[in-house]
Amino acid sequence: MQNQNFQPTTTIAQIQAFEEIQYLKGAPRAYRFDAKGGFLSFRGETRLTTKGEAFTFIPIAYRIFADEILGYDRRKWVEFYFINQIGQVCSVLFHGYSVDNLRLTFADMHYDRVNFTQVKLTVKPEQRTNQHGSYYLATFSYEVLEQEEVTTLEAIINALDPIYREDTLTENASISLSQHYAAPTPAGVAEDARVHAA
């Protein structure tokens, strides 16, 4: 069943209207892109989109990295953070070929002189088939925010506690790109990784 409350916000006006943005440091609400079923869900329990249906969110932080997490062997990941329609900080992960698709989008954004926290990002699951059956890859497109919206969003992000997800945090991650992502160091002090490019 679809739950509109858990849907991502898609406008800066929605985000700006919240009296408070809820975020427990290191524990954002976990969303899942189901590559087998081609849909977005909340915690893998509440389906938010139908099979192959596009969904949109406004990233407030992200990192592109390689690591062994969540029981998977070492692979490429992208971790996005956004705010849902009840004012909660959330995260969603993509891996594998979806990350390759994202890099194509990143190249376009580079020439438009914007980054992922300056756009409205739309994810479209596209079906593929191989010898093991069918699956879905995430493809990405974007709409650039107005400069006033970017400034507003930046102020909202800067008011939040350091943004990261504890259960995807290891000492072995190789981060190639991130913004507004601030994981704790082994000593427990937040490492400012608001802009990172390797």
List the helices and strands and how they pair.
Blueprint: H1 12-16, E1 29-34, E2 39-42, E3 46-47, E4 55-57, E5 61-67, E6 75-83, E7 89-95, H2 97-112, E8 119-130, E9 133-144, H3 147-158, E10 174-179, E11 195-197
Radius of gyration: 16 Å
Straight-line N-to-C gap = 41 Å
Mean pLDDT: 89
Biggest pleated-sheet summary:
8 strands, mixed
Low-confidence stretches: 192-198
Number of strands: 11
Approximate shape: globular
Q: Count helical runs.
A: 3
Give the helix level as a range of percent. 10-25%
Strand content: 35-45%
Number of domains: 1
Order of helices and strands: HEEEEEEEHEEHEE
Which class do the helix and strand fractions yield?
alpha+beta
In order across it, which strands form the biggest sheet?
Answer: 3-2-1-7-6-5-10-11
